[in-house]
Write a structure and sequence with these properties.
alpha/beta, four-stranded mixed sheet, 10 helices
């Protein structure tokens, strides 16, 4: 059964009505993009905002790396160690009087069931404000298909995207040749075109963090709607990302795995057979997780996914013994 067919079945079983008349919330699923980070690499060769401008390093939320076994007691001990050894100080203090800061750790779980089984082994990750251990599910095997679909090798998708990518790159390089020629001297790249859009998009993170920018970043281009150089870069990055999933086939090949995961779980809830987890399933992932997921679910808004963006599905049991689903 295709992802689209599954979605239609879910919408039929989970009869969508307004959450009223004493409807009871029985299940929640949520998928969010991680928080703010540094660029993954130096955006361009002449960029004076080097890695020294980012205390936690390229692409990272922290410089700390901690590896734990899959056993709960080791996981909990890892949390305790991070809490004691790395209290928040200076710019890392996110709330007055709060010394805890969120730090990642990693767990190896040989033999972990494929997330397709819908029953990931329970672990514990993170201490929240009052230092209560919060249950969390860590999946390792086949996690790329679920949470990093863009990093999973799918020959069928690759063939479809390669066919379109070539013509898209040619069109972009032709239309923005004047901008790209200018950017060669400004950035220090030997050449600028389609392939340089992604690293240049890292300038956005610098702007968010108030790092100084050269004048050319804000230069306006009358030949391109009077947009600034940065606005052109952002718009091209948006165009490229949307083009990766803008057909039903591409959307399903990249986002269908996690969409099916959600829809299967919703069906299980409606049939009263969802047991583990019994109340809530949460996913912390990336923009290249949310974008194909939204395309596969046909709820994409055509915009780049911002940091900390979240999709929430709430399932209600109604007074009429039916189920209602609400997606925010």
């Amino acid at each position: 059964m295709s992802c689209g067919q599954i979605m239609l079945v879910v919408l039929c079983i989970l009869y969508s009505v307004n959450a009223r008349f004493n409807n009871q919330l029985v299940y929640v699923q949520a998928l969010w993009r991680h928080g703010d980070r540094a660029p993954k690499i130096l955006p361009y060769p002449k960029d004076e905002n080097t890695e020294l401008a980012w205390p936690r390093g390229w692409a990272q939320l922290t410089n700390v790396y901690l590896l734990s076994s899959a056993i709960d007691r080791a996981i909990v001990s890892a949390q305790a160690m991070l809490r004691g050894f790395f209290p928040a100080t200076g710019r890392d203090v996110w709330m007055e009087g709060e010394a805890w800061q969120p730090l990642p750790f990693h767990s190896l779980t040989p033999g972990q069931p494929d997330p397709e089984s819908l029953n990931a082994a329970p672990h514990f990750l993170g201490l929240h404000k009052v230092y209560i251990l919060v249950p969390f599910a860590i999946t390792m095997h086949c996690s790329k298909k679920l949470l990093r679909p863009g990093h999973y090798n799918c020959p069928t998708y690759n063939e479809l995207w390669d066919q379109q990518k070539s013509s898209l790159a040619d069109a972009i390089n032709k239309e923005y040749a004047d901008v790209f020629n200018f950017l060669v001297n400004a950035t220090g790249f030997p050449s600028v075109g389609y392939r340089q859009i992604y690293p240049l998009y890292g300038i956005v993170a610098e702007v968010i963090h108030g790092l100084p920018q050269p004048d050319w970043v804000y230069r306006r281009w009358p030949s391109h709607g009077n947009l600034t150089t940065l606005e052109i870069i952002v718009d091209l990055e948006r165009l490229i990302q949307m083009s990766e999933f803008n057909t039903s086939e591409k959307a399903i090949l990249r986002g269908g795995y996690i969409a099916g995961n959600w829809l299967d779980r919703a069906l299980n809830v409606s049939m009263g057979i969802q047991t583990n987890p019994s109340k809530m399933m949460l996913f912390s992932a990336h923009d290249d997780t949310l974008t194909p997921f939204m395309f596969a679910m046909k709820i994409n808004n055509g915009l780049l996914v911002p940091y900390a963006a979240c999709i929430i599905m709430e399932i209600f049991a109604t007074a009429a013994n039916e189920f209602a689903v609400k997606v925010n």
